[in-house]
User: Fold these one by one.
Assistant:
Number 1:
Amino acid sequence: MNRTQLIENIRKKGSFLCVGLDTDIKKIPEHLRANKDAVFEFNKAIIDATAPYCVAYKPNTAFYESRGVKGWEDLDRTVEYIRNNYPDQFIIADAKRGDIGNTSSLYARAFFENLDVDALTVAPYMGFDSVKPFMEYEGKWVILLALTSNPGSRDFQFLNDVTGTRVFEHVLETARKWGDADNLMFVVGATQGAMFSEVRRVAPDNFLLVPGVGAQGGSLEEVVKWGINRDCGLLVNSSRGIIYASQGEDFAEAAASEARKLRDHMTILLSVHGIV
Amino acid sequence: MNRTQLIENIRKKGSFLCVGLDTDIKKIPEHLRANKDAVFEFNKAIIDATAPYCVAYKPNTAFYESRGVKGWEDLDRTVEYIRNNYPDQFIIADAKRGDIGNTSSLYARAFFENLDVDALTVAPYMGFDSVKPFMEYEGKWVILLALTSNPGSRDFQFLNDVTGTRVFEHVLETARKWGDADNLMFVVGATQGAMFSEVRRVAPDNFLLVPGVGAQGGSLEEVVKWGINRDCGLLVNSSRGIIYASQGEDFAEAAASEARKLRDHMTILLSVHGIV
């Protein structure tokens, strides 16, 4: 999916919500667990219930890998289900991959040819040749970790050089030479609050994928206040707050209701900023 | 496998060689490709041929993921084959994972419970909570990226802070507070040459996993000169130079011959340093 289509979908739906499909078999409702396709059936119900309110889905690969071959089958089927039934959804594999160039090409093959998602999250530590192979696919996106939502983000991302430039700013500045706003987004955690304005100083046009609203404590209003640009430029993710909204048989309706609430809030914010 | 056993195996075999099972189906000998288990059959032959000369195997997950569910089956079977037939081999999944704490726990489940490897390579960018979950498994190891072998290592790993400390040194120093020489190794690329002495200044006791000898241009002698410690403290990896030594029907013998050459060179170096 290209940038124009993504922006159009955001405008049409009044939403920049991404639903995180972090489906842990140990956390899905009791009544589904006996089903041999429990994870896929759970995802299917969540997707059908939330699709009207979001523009993107983001399965995190760890949840699927943790179940080995069966997990990869579920991931495959989930992506295929979204593709076939909701072709206007942007699909992100949250895999945080990255390796020497030769090897990153194989991850690109895995995610952009076989699984056929729109975007992949990539870790920046290994530098340009670990990222470039993902940019060689027309219409596909790299979403590079810049400032993450977790407590450990303080360990290395904020280290300062002699000019006062921090590591995450180097990542933003350097990576913008490798790609552009049409194939490169950045991960910036919702918990980083006012740091969004520093990110926007360096990367005014790139879309930002924003995890950490909800369970991790980030605020949607703060994110929008500092992070929005004229195209919206934000995909705000919620995982646990939506998919585990209820542990009962009403889990899908409860997920829909949480997604709808976030969409309604987003529509107001988009309207305040003159985007819808 | 614990540190004592690993050191004992190195002494016994006169080798600190790790064979990288970076098996690309497009690069294995013609006569095997028609076999539906081509990758597993190739790995099995390589393992049987090289096991006398090495102490570790390192499948890089990208090569398996690039083939989807079938690839994960091959990885599973390969690890199981090594476990069952060569229980003294240290098995490393070169996956370069890392995510927020909650999610890293699931990667730990994938690699340390299901796949049951001894060690996993982990990317440091997200900090302590992305690394700690892997350290909660008794007898398992984190191998943290510090200074990688690729050209992109120059982009962020060498950034200097106000005190002249570089990012990779911060990674070494900080990570040593999370683990110790019994559960934490570092990746340092063979192409980094004299930088090994800087690494050893900060991390004198930790094992270093060293890729980049052979195809990437690193020198075994340089690595040993600057990187060896009293326990050896090195696992030097070779992938392409061994597993693709021949494209013909003699691929396994050719691999054995390359591995033996490296082992012979390593035995001499270990002897020079009084370790065997």
Note: Chain B touches chain A through 58 residues (CB under 8 Å).
Number 2:
Amino acid sequence: MHKISLAHGSGGIETASLLQSVIFDNVPGWLKKVGTGLGIDFPDDSAAIPVPGGYMTVSIDAYTVNPIFFPGGDLGKLAAAGTINDILMGGGKPIAALDAIVVQEGVEVEVLKEVVDSMIGVFKEEGVALIGGDLKVMPSKHLDGIVVTTAGLGFAEKPISDKNITPGDKIIVTGPVGEHGAAILASQQNTPSHEFKSDVAPLTKLMIPIINEFVDHIHAARDPTRGGVAMCLNDWAKNSATTIVCNESDIPIREPVSNLCEMMGIDPLNLASEGVAMLAVAPDVAEQVLELIHRHGYRDARIIGEARKSTSTLDLVVLKTLIGGYRILEPPSGELVPRIC
Amino acid sequence: MHKISLAHGSGGIETASLLQSVIFDNVPGWLKKVGTGLGIDFPDDSAAIPVPGGYMTVSIDAYTVNPIFFPGGDLGKLAAAGTINDILMGGGKPIAALDAIVVQEGVEVEVLKEVVDSMIGVFKEEGVALIGGDLKVMPSKHLDGIVVTTAGLGFAEKPISDKNITPGDKIIVTGPVGEHGAAILASQQNTPSHEFKSDVAPLTKLMIPIINEFVDHIHAARDPTRGGVAMCLNDWAKNSATTIVCNESDIPIREPVSNLCEMMGIDPLNLASEGVAMLAVAPDVAEQVLELIHRHGYRDARIIGEARKSTSTLDLVVLKTLIGGYRILEPPSGELVPRIC
């Protein structure tokens, strides 16, 4: 019989196909969203429920990262920042969050407290209210460590949905990719890790100005977490029936990250970021948006490519390689890094 | 050093005190709720965020029940019904839900599908949209089974908060208590279990008419899950600074449940229900509310007691016992049944 494998959790094609068969195919269309809102008819970072004057946007994510404390952050910071970023990528301004903690019997209370303090610290800095939660304990033979699930709530006058990319749109990446994935990978492999530090951070101070000034021109927004840049671009191409063409040399990747990936036989474009946004932007404002991003301190932001009309029934992602050829960037597949987020 | 124990997860005083020290004490007042809404300043089944015309209500719960399939239901049904009930107990009409599934590597896809189908089945029947979710896989050495966290969203013109009980209010229980807890306990103990069946069920068809007709007179509502009737009444007494006096003989408990509890040395008033509501109702409408409840098929519903003015600084729950004496009903403490919900 068919069993769940780690690949089903890696955020690549196995995850997508499992969700399709187990969930999406079994929920009737009228139950996939609320009214004119956004839901699992086009799965995205956050959903949207119409309310007078706009939309309440909402997200949920379970964080299982191992180790709980990693260079650059910890489980609590990851949960808070990830939830805030999911709301932002849907065009929402983060308002509130709820947390459900499942903790193993025997964990030091101080360890739990450190994780929770870190989560609350991010919410405090960002002005996001913590309005509810749950806590369960599992016997140590049933769970190892701590799992934190957070739900986020925001308000969007106009939600950003990833299905609106049109040919000509420019693809922007706001910083070096794969940093979180590399940090977790290095931690799990016990590779000396002063080179690697997760980029986990809320993107509020960057995204709110972009939303305020350019929301009508942002045709897609996503933080490339599990599945990385590769999954994000492939989802976008598929959802919008375009071909996305990027210059490999324009995608910012730090050398230690690409070296680690080469050593491990992993494509850095499959690795998770936790403090990077990808945007698909109408071409006439792309330079202005990029300038705004640079002005906010994201110096490594680049336009990495553009959407083009699909010339076949295949909605592909094509990379122009460093040596001038072309390669197809497939969505990630197989087991990458377990418990990366 | 102080470690997490199973008692911290049993929904009794250890849970309350852990949440107080780890979470509530560390979130500043202005971040405990949104505007005039409800949040963790008075922790309740659901929180509320003001929107034009009323409140968006929201809840989160992690479901870790073991076994996944139990007499009367399964993990999926429990997650869906529990979330719907949390929204209802806050005075909201359930609209939408999101799910975050964490599953162990090696679980049969068919088992996951059965759990999810069961969850979706409840949402379908109740007209609750499933608008988002997440799925993670953990290696089998880190997790045993499946954990489902669900967030619920509803709309309330007027949320029900549990802090409004006033002396004279009648306490209503809508059905026999402890049924879910007894079913899980019997399953975990391998006690022949045809006697025991979880009562897990959404309470929408009962609660919507109550909310529509009597919301101004409902001063508290809760489904007595973890911690049971005992925790619910003690929280209510504490939050409203009243003494709650109940007749033990009026609290509906089926004989097999009380027998099992006697055998195991457990107070049935500490055991979880998953298809029962407890209400604190203004005395002048209590009989009408009870009548409505009976009319909807909840034949075992009873008025079990009332709130009284506290005559001391102790806000206690007092039971008039079967033999005519009085005993204090303490909030549950210690390890009861692990992974009950």
Note: Chain A touches chain B through 88 residues (CB under 8 Å).
Number 3:
Amino acid sequence: MTISTLQKARYSYNPKLPGMLRNGIAEICVKNGAPTESVADQEKIKALFPNTYGKNEITFQKGANTSTAKKQVVGVILSGGQAPGGHNVVCGLYDALKATDKDNVLLGFKGGPSGLIEDDYIEMTDEFIDQYRNTGGFDIIGSGRTKLETVPQFEIVTEVAKKHGLTAIVIIGGDDSNTNAAVLAEYMAAHNTGVQVIGCPKTIDGDLKNEDIETSFGFDTATKTYSEVIGNIERDANSAKKYWHFIKLMGRSASHVTLECALQTQPNICLVGEEVAAKKQSLSEIADQIADSVAVRGNRGDNFGVALIPEGIVEFVPEFSKLIAEINELLAGEKTEQFNALPSWDDKYAFIEKGLTAESMAVFSILPVGIQQQLFLERDPHGNVQVSLIESEKLFAELVKNKLAERAAAGTYTGKFSTLTHFFGYEGRCAFPSNFDSDYCYSLGYNAFMLIQYGFTGYLSKVSNLSAPAEEWVAGGMPITKMMNIERRNGEDKPVIRKALVELDGAPFKYFAEHRAKWADETCFLYPGAIQYYGPAEVCDATTKTLALEQAK
Amino acid sequence: MTISTLQKARYSYNPKLPGMLRNGIAEICVKNGAPTESVADQEKIKALFPNTYGKNEITFQKGANTSTAKKQVVGVILSGGQAPGGHNVVCGLYDALKATDKDNVLLGFKGGPSGLIEDDYIEMTDEFIDQYRNTGGFDIIGSGRTKLETVPQFEIVTEVAKKHGLTAIVIIGGDDSNTNAAVLAEYMAAHNTGVQVIGCPKTIDGDLKNEDIETSFGFDTATKTYSEVIGNIERDANSAKKYWHFIKLMGRSASHVTLECALQTQPNICLVGEEVAAKKQSLSEIADQIADSVAVRGNRGDNFGVALIPEGIVEFVPEFSKLIAEINELLAGEKTEQFNALPSWDDKYAFIEKGLTAESMAVFSILPVGIQQQLFLERDPHGNVQVSLIESEKLFAELVKNKLAERAAAGTYTGKFSTLTHFFGYEGRCAFPSNFDSDYCYSLGYNAFMLIQYGFTGYLSKVSNLSAPAEEWVAGGMPITKMMNIERRNGEDKPVIRKALVELDGAPFKYFAEHRAKWADETCFLYPGAIQYYGPAEVCDATTKTLALEQAK
């Protein structure tokens, strides 16, 4: 067997387009909206994007297609981490391109932006594309993390574009990749290359979100996949009644993924990094908050529970960020060698004790020894602490255990506390896209081609009104510059799309905040089960709770 | 919201019974088969079970119901670890019981066998049962690991049975629980209590399997859940092309779960404990075998892959078992205290070096320090090494890394090797049961009641021909004693159901062995995706590859 039965079945799923794109290529025309300006720093952004700034928002509608007939040769790349539905963006793009003119060409550049620089590509055909319809993964052409942002790179891309006669490049990626798409679009326009650039909003992290991007693709499928296994673990906890499960979830730095999973599964505890930062919480305070739930439950005999922990949590804890900064300083340059030469951990510990401030040492000293050692021994090529490797699920399990020991000694806790830890991330990035992501991604790709065909550049493929049925979705385009502001990055002022953190006054967090006391005390677990692609619409076609709450009338 | 949309939708699923049970209670009669004898040690087993040994196998068929009309009061318990479908066994039992006579009573004893001893129970009603139809978990009445095996326990159970007027007890559990069901049945018969005992074969591990039990329930759903996430990770590996994922899977000690997942996902590497034992492989040999695949792939630029590792693997490695035995000996009794008093790990290491044989020290010295420390520091209440906690996924990742460093130095390996590790177990035990497990479990429960109604005791509820459509399944009963032999357990000869290990000359392993060289070298990943409950039959209704291969004509 070379493919699974589900993969075979999914090939014949017909993704739903927004109603306005359903009448055939000949019946799609442009409706102009208002001119745009960037969300902040208008003068600076305008100066950086003289050729692409301030264009109109547009939507598509039913009407005679007035685009210019010309042969299109489009290049597409996938950029950054995998997200379910990437294949469908390519499929939608391909179908619109071929429906417009069967002589149009789609080139897939391999391994991310580097494929465009190294001119490593494949020409898409029906037979090839058909193997990837409605499937997960980025294996169709691979992905990569090379950043496309320097003028020398742009010069090479221009050469490659010229060689193939490219009329447009579609960049499927996250906030950085879309920022770079805007910069490349400006470069191409300024140099009269005739190459348009269109971006598509991808990331499971959910942090590419603003008034124009209701959700990035992949977030729906990834959070449903995590929620499936979280729900299964909750049910196990509620059956065995003897473990607390500490579950870390991917999605740095924002806590969107974890919050969405909490809305889907109603665990006892869900940490939200943005709240921790706003309240300037310490590790000890967070541990106490979890211990409160464990104690209330344990004192009545419910010695089980589930706690969700966002991957980026420790970066939001002020005292921990300070500790990390001090460690990086303590081991800067040749001091690493000096440290590594110390013969035993005891010697190293003495060195650390001498080097850290009393405040940071107080934080360091409560960490489990495994995490203490990791902070000093496993460092990235620049000698910095690898925050993403910190096993915060084990950290909090340990801190809570210590808190409970104190409470037991004080007579306020009489339960038992056994923990199991998990980390979910890679399980969700390449799942078969949900019907929502299949439809949304296909629409983004289809729509991206319509933007190309109508001559737009520096635009993001925009599909909105996403909590409604696909029929009512609104397809169009938004100048990427509209989403930009100036931020300090690596010591330079840069025009970038702002990363969206969880808003503490947003509807999803507020819903959570209203219910969490009950969830912490009682057992309100929800078991979402596996993503369903067939069956009742209420099971198969709903998107995230985040979007439903944000768009609730 | 109090339940998920899938849970609500699953309530209305109508589990499929074997054809012979579909004509209504009035049309089910018994067809006697041959008398049975135990698979081995016939004289000894017969002597231990004078009242229940040697009975006939029976099947049900369409015909006038000739069972005696009497009010049935049945007790049911769930025993041991969770397995998807347990709720449906209870539902099937309840439905058959109530269809026979609405005055019949089903009592669910809570928290496993201890519920029966402590007389902690709930009387089942339609309203109560309907909340659990086709759902995962054992939360309907909970489960527990108390063993029901001593005469004092049986005396208490007899009292509880008398109090409630119990006519039968159904024990849903694994090999040990079914063994104990047979012993209890014999006790009840010998003491003329009038209480029948019926067993149902549960375990995700797949090791409760023999010529009469084609598969234990839960194995199908659990392996599909693990295969979903393994397939997603494979697709991620094949997209990012930069990680080797080492994935440990639950299911001690046998490797059925891991082998089934390998058949479903075609990873590069799958270790099978039974083969390791048969070939008397060393850790180093296993690491070399994995390194061979990494090197072949890495040398052509494919620096990614997936390796599946059964939880029980290290117990099958002779040199490792020897090491564990020596460690247990080294720390026996008061020696633990002496060891713990040593101030540093260096001191402890010196103690270990002095205490182990040279052979075991050679094994110990190649282990990652984290695992070395775990072996000595995290011990069970009896002071023994906790084999199940050994992070063998990290162990092999580390050993392979060392092998590759040697090869790189020798110039035979030019790739890069970065690893990520995972452990899946709790994710699969409480998933919504697949259609197969929903049907199979409901049939087991329904059938269990028919065995009760016809007066059988010491029987296992048996449903077979499971790779065919449910219509063609064969329902009946088999004396549990038939599956027994005598084994040495804790220094005593005991009658037990033999645990089924993976058979190296069985069809599933042979299929794997024929294909693994290709899977190791090439990328043949299969992506099964999430369990589907609706949709095309070939996606939703097929059971495991293991069963399909075992029953292939």
Note: The radius of gyration of chain B is 25 Å.
Number 4:
Amino acid sequence: MIELDWKPTKNSPEPLYRQIVVYIRDKVAAGDWVIGSRLPSQRDMAEAFGVNRSTVVAAMEELISYGILESGYGGGTRVKSNTWSLLMSRPPDWSEYIKSGPFRANLPTIQAINRLEFEPGYIRIGTGELSPDLYPEKLLTKIFRRMPEVVPNLGYLGALGLPELGRAISERLREKQGIKVGPSNILITSGSLQALQLISVCMLKRGSAVYTEAPTYLKSLQVFQSAGMNMIGVPMDGEGIKYWHIKDDCKDSLLYTIPTFQNPTGTVMSEARRKELLNFAAGHRLPLLEDNAYGELWFDARPPKALKAYDTTGSVIYLGTVSKTMAPGLRIGWVAGPEAVVQRLGDVKMQTDYGASSVSQWVMTELLTSGGYDEYLEKLRVELKERRDYALAILKEEFSGMATWNVPEGGFYIWLRFDRKLPMDKIFSDALKSGVLINPGNIYDYGENNAIRISYAYAKPEELKKALKILSGIGEKYYKR
Amino acid sequence: MIELDWKPTKNSPEPLYRQIVVYIRDKVAAGDWVIGSRLPSQRDMAEAFGVNRSTVVAAMEELISYGILESGYGGGTRVKSNTWSLLMSRPPDWSEYIKSGPFRANLPTIQAINRLEFEPGYIRIGTGELSPDLYPEKLLTKIFRRMPEVVPNLGYLGALGLPELGRAISERLREKQGIKVGPSNILITSGSLQALQLISVCMLKRGSAVYTEAPTYLKSLQVFQSAGMNMIGVPMDGEGIKYWHIKDDCKDSLLYTIPTFQNPTGTVMSEARRKELLNFAAGHRLPLLEDNAYGELWFDARPPKALKAYDTTGSVIYLGTVSKTMAPGLRIGWVAGPEAVVQRLGDVKMQTDYGASSVSQWVMTELLTSGGYDEYLEKLRVELKERRDYALAILKEEFSGMATWNVPEGGFYIWLRFDRKLPMDKIFSDALKSGVLINPGNIYDYGENNAIRISYAYAKPEELKKALKILSGIGEKYYKR
């Protein structure tokens, strides 16, 4: 923890010992040297600082008198006072929840992925994000240029968000998805994740069951885990979630579903299954949380309408976002639901962050009302489909006879399942050594599996090809054992 | 709740009874007719819809068969199934916390203010926000125009936020405030409120004491209340908080302070008091949360440096924002603290909303690095000072002999204290009837007081004059009784 990569300035008017005092004080104040850390020996410090040992002694004495350092029992000197560090050393509630439960084993992989995604040099073949190459630079330039005329000011907004955006979104939901909502049914959030957060805070009791498809994107559901919910995976078939596995007594529960281009399997829930699920939900008073992040990214044919469009009993809360279709950095999502629910979520949102950025909300409004978003989506669908076809061709070449996979009709994901049980942790680290970052299936599942989530949306096609070749080589190595 | 402001279409191919079924189904599905609501009598519905009673009976029967309506025990028909409403009717944890504690009495006033602030037609003389007249339209136009060249893409960002903004803020804190921090000590948040929220989730235990100045802006601290903290007001004098009133045993506690241009009293903590408070905090291992929202809005002389600048023991977490100095709609705030703390808060932020809007963060970066923000601040200080002087002149004319007030050296607020105990609730509602929205002192205080927070930042000067005249008339009426 404690590294001495600094030397005092010899020709400074400030005495050497004083420079050392200030250096150590700042390190402790910044929290870089945490409380309880042991300092190097006086001899080592003298050497590292390039000063006499007596200079170090003088500095230590001053720092001890300030209460910043203390003499250790077994000799040596330790950092004594850094109030915040003290406070931090006590494990807070949220971390206990995260550590408990089925995520435990998965966390190190997720953390590694989160960290490595911000390090250059890896080909990322699992990233659930559009490639920067697909960023609609021209469109956004046009929109940004219009902002000065569009934005009247940047004051505080009401609980539901920018009214102009609420109107644009409710019109879009009515026209494109047949969802009957008005502006008072729409709450703007900072992405869908915040909507999940608000729902977990406002509506669910600790210990409530949250049913999800298995596999699903558990990372985005950590918010439920953290709030003490009991996550339960429900198996799927080709038509979607097998809802009949849900317990008859599902009081106080919630079902979170991604019915269209599901993450990570790409599955589309059939129209029949949607209607059955809604009947089941109404009969069991089971609220449904429909995440439609990928619904607009269809290739050849529109998927069935959103669950919310078939909902006649007010069972569904619908979540939308542009994080997957355009730009996560806008941090714009929306909840469509009954007025009372939306109002309540909005009130709590006001207490946590006073609403989403109005700059982002104006940009989004302009994207929708100018028609620019729809033109963009049309082009994006074509490009994503090309990327999908390219990925499928490589998979056929590289993984035939070793794995099977779905042919997604939209969205980002191919769920690549090896035919045999393979050591996925080793595959992850071998791939990493070869410069390939994969998203292994166990971070999506309640138990182990032999799958990998492939995203054709992020990596450049030629890089995807290179990475899939590497991955198939690694797979083969273990497959043949 | 249930209003029948709709009629079926007589010449539609859809039978009348069916149109009524769909109408009521949608009302219930949208949550507009909540569960348990009683429908009007069949006779009244027949009249309102302009149909025969038998048509209403047919529609009711169908809706009852769907489980949407049910026959009431005492006759009549009620809304039966709306799954979300059912769920909502159970009081969730957060609302229990908000209802308990010292806010109880204040809530109705705060709620009224929150609602009325979005209704036109009131002169708002307490609003803690810059007037739209002060919105730097030209500057922001310039900045928006530059966005296309500045923004590389709008992908996900790391836990601490946009690195370019972290660098710009840490440089600013070093240069302008003498706070020794680097980019790794800075976390970008969606305004200061989110920082408070993260701190309450990550660092404080239920039942921990949170000390604040009394009075303070309690509304912004509801987040601590909601999380079950025990709020304790500490009295102030002209030099700031009288910290010696804090219990010697303040383990697990936190002190939240606005040392500069305090909200609502305008007080500036003296340099001596700052140093004493830091000594006290270090000695008692009491962490300090310094909210410096107004610090850059000084008029004639710079205020003392931030507490964080004098902090040699790592006791202070510093909160900054542009919500008060420029535009709350940007939703940009920052935390400056020890690396370990900032990293932890950032991790939790990633779990709640994946970070602040990158559009806003780029706008802010450009504002800081272009020098535009500083030029703007210089002009703003002059304008705010003029508004202050204007407000003081009116107060002298209208309230002499009835009330006293501070002369703020920066920030937004004048704390107007009546010399006698007056019925503040009546003054609030009388003012409202005359079109003036005031922020009565009891929403800032732990007990009652005879004060009103006047903000010279929001209302137009001539409107402020008009409103203060009205207020003094109302005050006089009660004062003389």
Note: Chain B is about 45% helix and 15% strand.
